[in-house]
Specification:
Elements: E1 32-36, E2 40-43, H1 44-57, E3 63-66, E4 72-76, E5 89-97, E6 102-107, H2 111-122, E7 129-133
Helix pairs in contact: 1-2
Length: about 140
C-alpha cells in the first residue's frame, strides 16, 4: 500500500475539499483516464484495489499511471474510549480528491478493454467517476 516515507507532522486536520481541482484535470500520460466527479477522501486501500482491478482486466498489457497519492494521515480513536485525552493515532492514509481530478490513466490497450478495466477500477473507489479519453475529447 502507498504511504509517504516521511512526513513533517504525524497527524493532520480533517479540512474540507472545496471547489474544483487546481491541477491534474487533463490527460498527461495515457489515452484513457478516470476522472473524479465529487470531492472525497480516497484511502490507500481503495487506490490499491482499483489498481489491481484495472491491471487484472488489462491482462497486464499496456501501462497504468496512478495520478493521486495518499499523503494525508487519518487518525481514529479506539472504540469505547472516553472523550478527551488527545487525538487518536493515525489509522490509514488518504488522498484528498477534488472534482475534475484525473485519478488513473491507461494506455496501450484497445478502447473496449480500457473502458471495461476503468469501469471495474471505479467500482472500488468511494467517489463517483467518469471515464474520459483523449480520442473523443470528452
Amino acid at each position: 500500500m502507498m504511504q509517504p516515507k516521511k512526513t513533517k507532522f504525524r497527524r493532520a486536520f480533517k479540512g474540507r475539499i472545496k471547489g474544483n481541482t487546481k491541477g491534474g484535470s487533463a490527460l498527461n500520460f495515457g489515452q484513457f483516464g478516470l476522472k473524479a466527479l465529487e470531492p472525497n477522501r480516497v484511502n490507500a486501500r481503495e487506490i490499491e484495489a482499483a489498481r489491481r482491478a484495472i491491471t487484472r482486466e488489462m491482462k497486464r498489457q499496456g501501462r497504468v499511471w496512478i495520478r493521486i497519492f495518499p499523503d494525508v494521515p487519518v487518525s481514529k480513536k479506539p472504540i469505547e474510549v472516553r472523550m478527551g485525552k488527545g487525538k487518536g493515532a493515525p489509522e490509514f492514509w488518504a488522498a484528498r480528491v477534488a472534482p475534475g481530478r484525473i485519478m488513473f490513466e491507461i494506455d496501450g490497450v484497445s478502447e473496449t478493454v480500457a473502458r471495461e478495466s476503468l469501469r471495474l477500477g471505479a467500482a472500488k473507489l468511494s467517489v463517483r467517476t467518469k471515464i474520459i479519453s483523449r480520442i473523443e475529447g470528452l
